[in-house]
Structures are given as structure tokens and as C-alpha cells.
Design a protein that fits this description.
The structure holds two protein chains of two kinds.
Chain A: H1 2-24, H2 35-44, H3 46-80, H4 82-95, H5 100-111, H6 115-139, H7 143-151, H8 156-193, H9 199-208, H10 212-240
Helix pairs in contact in A: 2-10, 3-4, 3-6, 3-8, 3-9, 5-6, 5-8, 6-8, 8-9, 8-10, 9-10
Chain B: H1 13-17, E1 26-35, E2 38-48, E3 53-57, H2 64-72, E4 80-86, E5 96-99, H3 111-115, H4 117-122, H5 127-139, H6 155-168, E6 173-177, H7 185-198, E7 203-208, H8 211-217, E8 220-225, E9 230-231, H9 248-262, H10 271-274
Helix pairs in contact in B: 5-6, 6-7, 8-9
The chains are: A mainly alpha, B alpha/beta.
């Protein structure tokens, strides 16, 4: 019961704060629309919102999928292949010194206004947290387990499959949760810099035309999707590491 | 507390499928361990007679675990070296099973999967392996916990799974590193009985800092003490293991061992050790 009740109370509290802010700001819907104004707008323009939302959600999901896959493969390569660790790990760390947002205009220039530049943006933003989390997990296998595998005459791949991979799942799970939280940022930043569709595009244009209620409706949709994605990933990662269920709470 | 040892029986699957690999005597010689430039022991020799439990008793930090790791092939030779010879002339590498103080059960695997880990790692798990593991787990009283994960088990149950995992390896030498030290006294006594029964006829090296445990389980008991550490002439407690912990003869031997461990280990007599 509390699992549903608590988020519901939090949501109601946030809506109440929003309503209070609306009154304090002098009830000027063209600057700050009330929750009800926003809902009305969302229903009135449901078709248009849905069209743009589906594009953005698609970008987020594709970026999440590719980013996670790429991050996991990189971590595996880094842990299995010593030269990769020596040469690629420093590059990986240095690459994080470049703000991903600064790359957005370049990505749009190279990949165009369509889907791919946003997906790549989301991949770039997800890649690092997933890679480092999984790599950490793979490198921190309990030495007692590795000794045990050696005494049992286990090969390198068997040790990886039966011991190191499952042992790294809790670390991977936290990387996936971070990825789920930041994936929407990548997609929307990409849309802001240059796009012809998507919630970011919609917000930019609505803002320019002082349609603040549309901006809020889009923001609410985006927030709902981001929370939904995070909740889903959290639930899935909990099932992935059931032996750690209590420490994931 | 005394448990009657069961002789192996052909009609019991656990006894049939995991046939004890009897009789490999092992000799460790010229064992050396340096730590921070100082020798912890040098030129140490230890005989592990075939089919016998050799108990190695010593205070913490004397290098007992390193001796065991040397036999397990887990030392890379930078700090510790030794010459290991076996009765059959083949190298010992890959022919030991290890039971450590920490059970090291994999938290994501079921009891049955943990017990058959060795076969799973070598890719040799067959239905027969599973049958044998199931039968052994039944014998240690875990027959109804096969599908449980380790976090659902008590410390004693977990160590029993680890014991089955070591037995499933069916190796000619079993190394035990303070296997029961993390358990409460009663559970420890029960597990010692169970272990003595299940390990009968195998070559075992039991490293422990508990004199009573060494005396209950060991055919021979060595004391490792001093710096650099030396091995005393082995003590051979009377009667077959597991011995009754209440036996006055055993308690007298325990007092003697405690005296050796506490007093002589530091080179000076320790007042507590010589108290009446």
C-alpha cells in the first residue's frame, strides 16, 4: 500500500506547491500556468503533444538501449583485455572532461536534425556511467571467490560467467539507474540545439510564442516519462539482483 | 553430542557417486615465508599421511594460512615457497579441495548450485553430479533447502553447504582453514562430528587455532609457534575422531596445547597459561 501511497502523496504535495506558487506569482497564466491550466492545455492539444512525445520517448529509449549495450561491452573489453585497459581507460576518463552538451551542435551538424543526433547524444551521456559502474563491479570480485575458482581448476571464461559477471550485477544495476535518470537530458538537449520534432522542439517553439502552458504540458509529460523509466529500470534491476533486494531500496 | 560414524554404504547415492579418493600422502618441505623482509618460517617440513587428518594448530599470524595456500597452489612464490611431493609422484596442483573460514557461497546461486559449483565451473555438471550433491546435502540435513539462496541460511547451514561443495570436488587432499571458527560453540561441535564422519578415510589438513577442535578431529596434531615458527613433534590423541569433547584425557591434552600456544609462543612463560 505505502508503495503506491507515498508517491501519490509526494505528487499531490508538488501539485499543491505549484498551485501556491501560481497564486503568489499573481495568477498570471501567461508566465506561470496553474496545474489545471496545464492539464486543460494538455487535453486540448493531446494529438500534437503525443506526436512530439513519442519521438522524444523513442530517442530516449534508443539512446538508453545503445548506451547501455555499448557501456557493458566496453567494460567487458576493458576488463578482459589488458592493452584495452592501458590505452583506452585514460582516454575514457579524459573524454569526460569534454562537456557532452558542448558537442550537441556538432552532432546536429554531422548527423542532421533527425533522430540520430539525439540518440547519439543520449548514448554519449549514458555511456560513461554504465561503463565505469560495470567495470568497477567486474574488477572488484571478492578475491576469495577467485581463489576458490582457481582451486576448482576453473577456466577464465567459466570464472567470468559464473562468478565475475553475477558479482558485478549490483554495480551494473546502479549504473543502469543513473543511465535511466540522465537519458532524457541527452535527448532533450539534442532537440534544443537543432531538431524538427520532439518535446524539446515543441518547448522551444512554444516558449518563443509565449505559450507557457504548452511548455509546462511538455515538461510534465517529459517528467512523467523520466520517472516512469527510472521506476521501471529500478524494478528490473531489483529482479536482476534479488539477493541484494534490501540494499537497493 | 557423540554421533555414531556411518560407514560408507553402497546403497547410499552420496557414498556411491562421490567415492572417497583415499590415500594420497603429501609432503611439504623447505617451506619459507618472508613478510616485510623477516622470515615467518624457514625450512619448515610437514607430513600429511594418507587417509589421515593432520591438524595444524597455531596462534594468529604465525603463517598457518600461508602453508595452506602453498598446498592449494594459491601462492605465486614472491613471499612464500615450498617443495611439495606426493606419494604417487604426480604434482599436487589441481588436486586439492579447499574449505575456508568464510564459506564464500555465491549469494546469487541456490544451495544446490553452490554445492555443484566446481562441476559448473569446469563445465562437467551432469544429472549424476546433481544427484550426488542432493544426496550429500540430505546427509548434512539440508535436503529441504536445495532451492534456497545462502542469505536464507544460518551460519552453520552455510558452512555445511561449503563442506558439501568441498566434498563434491572429490579431491585426494582436503584443506580446511579454520572452517568452524565463525560459528557458535554448539554448532561448531555438531559440525566437527559431521565433518569427521564425512571426511573419514581422506587426507585432510586442518588449520585451526582451537586446540579442542584439533584434538577432536586430528589423527595428528602439530603446533606451529615461535618466530621464525617451528613445528613441534606431532601429538597423537588416542582413539578415532571425532573424539568426545568431555573426555578428561582430551581435556588434559588441551591444557597442554594451550600452554604451548600461549607460553612458549612468545618465548616467555605467560602467567595465565601456568595458573593451576
Amino acid at each position: 500500500m505505502t508503495r503506491l501511497l507515498r508517491p501519490a502523496i509526494t505528487l499531490a504535495g508538488l501539485l499543491a506547491l505549484w498551485q501556491i506558487a501560481y497564486h503568489i506569482a499573481g495568477e498570471r497564466p501567461y508566465l506561470l500556468p496553474s496545474p489545471l491550466d496545464t492539464l486543460t492545455t494538455a487535453i486540448d492539444r493531446a494529438d500534437r503533444l503525443a506526436h512530439h512525445a513519442l519521438i522524444t520517448f523513442g530517442e530516449i529509449l534508443l539512446g538508453f538501449g545503445f548506451g547501455v549495450a555499448l557501456g557493458m561491452l566496453s567494460a567487458l573489453a576493458l576488463v578482459l583485455w589488458a592493452p584495452a585497459r592501458r590505452w583506452l581507460l585514460p582516454i575514457l576518463v579524459i573524454s569526460q572532461a569534454v562537456p557532452v552538451f558542448a558537442l550537441a551542435p556538432l552532432l546536429v551538424l554531422w548527423l542532421g536534425y533527425g533522430l540520430s543526433s539525439k540518440v547519439v547524444m543520449a548514448v554519449l551521456i549514458i555511456y560513461f556511467p554504465v561503463t565505469t559502474a560495470f567495470l568497477d563491479g567486474l574488477r572488484r570480485t571478492d578475491p576469495a571467490w577467485l581463489d576458490m575458482a582457481r582451486v576448482m581448476n576453473a577456466g577464465r571464461w567459466a570464472t567470468l560467467w559464473h562468478i565475475r559477471l553475477p558479482a558485478a550485477l549490483p554495480a551494473l544495476a546502479s549504473g543502469l539507474r543513473v543511465a535511466a535518470a540522465v537519458a532524457p537530458i541527452g535527448a532533450v538537449v539534442g532537440e534544443w540545439v537543432g531538431s524538427s520534432a520532439g518535446l524539446g522542439f515543441l518547448m522551444l517553439h512554444a516558449n518563443a510564442r509565449m505559450q507557457v502552458d504548452v511548455v509546462f504540458a511538455a515538461l510534465a509529460l517529459l517528467a512523467a516519462f523520466a520517472v516512469g523509466l527510472y521506476t521501471l529500470v529500478t524494478a528490473l534491476t531489483r529482479r536482476m539482483v534479488p539477493w541484494q533486494a534490501e540494499s537497493n531500496a | 553430542m557423540t554421533v555414531i560414524p556411518h560407514p560408507p554404504r553402497a546403497d547410499r547415492p552420496a557414498d556411491r557417486l562421490v567415492t572417497p579418493a583415499h590415500g594420497l600422502g603429501v609432503r611439504l618441505a623447505d617451506a619459507r615465508l618472508t613478510y616485510g623482509g623477516l622470515p615467518l618460517f624457514d625450512g619448515l617440513a610437514l607430513d600429511l599421511p594418507a587417509g589421515r587428518v593432520t591438524a595444524l594448530l597455531g596462534p594468529s599470524g604465525v603463517g598457518k594460512s600461508t602453508l595452506l595456500r602453498l598446498l592449494a597452489g594459491l601462492e605465486d612464490g614472491t613471499h612464500a615457497q615450498a617443495t611439495i611431493t606426493t606419494d604417487d609422484g604426480h604434482p599436487l596442483a589441481g588436486r586439492v579441495a579447499h574449505l575456508a573460514q568464510r564459506d564464500s557461497l555465491l549469494p546469487w546461486a541456490t544451495v544446490l548450485d553452490n554445492a555443484t559449483l566446481g562441476a559448473r565451473l569446469r563445465g562437467t555438471r551432469t544429472p549424476a553430479t546433481r544427484t550426488a550433491a542432493r544426496a550429500l546435502l540430505e546427509r548434512v540435513g539440508l535436503g529441504d533447502r536445495l532451492a534456497d539462496r545462502p542469505d536464507a541460511l544460518s551460519g552453520g547451514m552455510r558452512q555445511r553447504v561449503a563442506l558439501v561443495r568441498a566434498l563434491m570436488e572429490n579431491r585426494p587432499l582436503i584443506l580446511m582453514d579454520e572452517p568452524f571458527s565463525a560459528l557458535d560453540a554448539l554448532t561448531r561441535l555438531r559440525l566437527q562430528d559431521l565433518t569427521a564422519r564425512l571426511l573419514a578415510g581422506r587426507t585432510v589438513l586442518l588449520v585451526t587455532h582451537d586446540p579442542l577442535e584439533a584434538l577432536r578431529l586430528g589423527h595428528r596434531v602439530h603446533v606451529l609457534h615461535g618466530r621464525p615458527a617451528t613445528l613441534d613433534a606431532p601429538l597423537e590423541p588416542p582413539g578415532p575422531p571425532p573424539r568426545d569433547p568431555a573426555d578428561p584425557a582430551l581435556l588434559a591434552l588441551q591444557a597442554d596445547l594451550l600452554r604451548r600456544l600461549t607460553g612458549e609462543a612468545h618465548g616467555v612463560p605467560c602467567p595465565e597459561a601456568v595458573a593451576p
